[in-house]
Write a structure and sequence with these properties.
Elements lengths: L3 E9 L3 E3 L21 H7 L2 E5 H8 L10 E5 L14 E4 L3 H10 L4 E5 L1 H9 L5 E7 L7 E2 L10 E9 L3 E8 L3
Parallel strand pairs: 1-6, 1-7, 3-4, 3-6, 4-5
Antiparallel strand pairs: 2-8, 7-10, 9-10
Length: about 180
């Protein structure tokens, strides 16, 4: 069984995934009147489950409307004890190191994972557990906020696979981890 951990995320030109106060409104700063799909549907068909941090989970819960994911969601948290009743069949809370989480998920039959959320992505990168980065850059400078990347203990090399331009302004770059 192929194992793969994928980051699919948007960032500002200056490398932030959320503004200074956690704001995300800038993600929709480029009009998309035709609702052009930018790879998310294909990603959902490719993966077995989604791994996200508590903050990202809380943001998604406050979007309103229906739950946006058809795949099982694993929320990483040391403090969250339960999820809303209507999500109990769709969401599992876990805690542990990135290695422990991956090992437990593989034992449950989840091998292709979408890793989402700032701290979660940073921790999985720090543990060298990310196989692909699919990053869409939105042409805006936020001037501060939550950065996509944090400090690493070692250098991680990726190779460029593909670039796509959406709405004549959004650039999505796809990278694969170079393993020795």
């Amino acid at each position: 069984m192929e194992k793969k951990n994928i980051v699919f995320i948007a960032k500002s030109l200056d490398g932030y995934i959320a503004g200074k106060n956690g704001e995300l409104d800038w993600l929709e700063s480029i009009p998309n009147p035709d609702n052009i799909e930018m790879g998310f549907t294909n990603l959902m068909q490719e993966i077995d489950a989604i791994v996200m941090g508590k903050t990202t989970f809380e943001v998604v819960c406050h979007f309103g409307g229906h739950w946006p994911y058809t795949k099982h969601v694993i929320v990483l948290s040391n403090s969250l004890k339960e999820v809303p009743e209507q999500l109990k069949q769709r969401v599992t809370i876990m805690k542990g190191s990135p290695q422990e989480i991956i090992s437990a998920l593989h034992k449950r039959g989840y091998f292709k994972l979408y890793i989402d959320g700032g701290r979660t992505v940073q921790e999985f990168l720090k543990a060298d557990l990310i196989d692909e980065l699919r990053i869409t850059t939105i042409p805006i400078l936020l001037g501060g906020g939550f950065p996509l990347f944090g400090d690493l203990d070692l250098r991680l090399e990726f190779e460029h696979i593909e670039s796509k331009v959406f709405l004549n302004q959004l650039v999505q770059n796809w990278y694969r981890r170079k393993r020795k």
